[in-house]
């Protein structure tokens, strides 16, 4: 059975957490950088997505640290989150391969007028 495609925001949030736990603003900046500026998360969108990812078991709270009188929450990727991200990368790769083959088959050969 095919799994549901992951939305782009979730894809980049999970990607942001692959190498280290991050706090919300760190995730926001990393997602923007990873996506080449195509995905810019607003605070409400980010924390709504994080709540869903936590509920789905893909992300978990790593720690809370005080920062300027407020608690800064750090999140980390779970093993299930890593598996989900890996599956999504494989899905994107397969889709790109299929599209590339089709494009290559329909392009006129170079140098032929």
Give me the secondary-structure topology.
Layout: H1 8-16, E1 22-23, H2 24-34, H3 43-55, E2 59-67, E3 70-77, H4 79-106
Antiparallel strand pairs: 1-3, 2-3
Helix pairs in contact: 1-2
How would you describe this structure to a colleague?
With 113 residues, the chain is α+β, with helices and mostly antiparallel strands. It has a single domain (8-106), classed as Winged helix-like DNA-binding domain superfamily/Winged helix DNA-binding domain (Arc Repressor Mutant, subunit A, Orthogonal Bundle). The protein is 54% helix and 17% strand. The protein is built from four helices and three strands; from the N terminus they run H-E-H-H-E-E-H. It has helices spanning 8-16, 24-34, 43-55, 79-106; strands at residues 22-23, 59-67, 70-77. A three-stranded antiparallel sheet has the order 1-3-2. Strand 2 and strand 3 form a beta hairpin. Helix 1 (8-16) crosses helix 2 (24-34). The longest helix is centred in the last third of the chain and has 28 residues, at 79-106. The termini are far apart. The model has no long low-confidence stretch (mean pLDDT 92).
Enter the CATH topology name.
Arc Repressor Mutant, subunit A
**CATH architectural arrangement:** Orthogonal Bundle
What does the largest sheet look like?
A: 3 strands, antiparallel
| Fourth CATH level, the homologous superfamily | Winged helix-like DNA-binding domain superfamily/Winged helix DNA-binding domain
Structural category is alpha+beta
Widest beta sheet: strand line-up: 1-3-2
* Tally of individual domains: 1
Q: What is the N-to-C order of secondary-structure elements (H for helix, E for strand)? A: HEHHEEH
Helix content: 40-55%
Mean pLDDT: 92
Q: What's the tally of helices?
A: 4
CATH class: Mainly Alpha
Radius of gyration: 18 Å
């Amino acid at each position: 059975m095919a799994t549901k495609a992951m939305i782009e925001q979730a894809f980049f949030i999970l990607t942001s957490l692959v190498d280290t736990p991050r706090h919300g603003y760190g995730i926001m900046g990393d997602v923007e950088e990873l996506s080449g500026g195509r995905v810019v998360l607003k605070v409400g969108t980010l924390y709504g997505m994080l709540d869903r990812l936590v509920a789905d078991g893909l992300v978990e709270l790593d720690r809370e640290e005080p920062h300027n009188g407020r608690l800064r929450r750090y999140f980390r990727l779970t093993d299930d989150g890593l598996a989900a991200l890996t599956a999504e990368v494989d899905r994107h790769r397969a889709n790109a391969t299929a599209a590339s083959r089709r494009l290559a088959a329909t392009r006129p050969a170079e140098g032929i007028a």
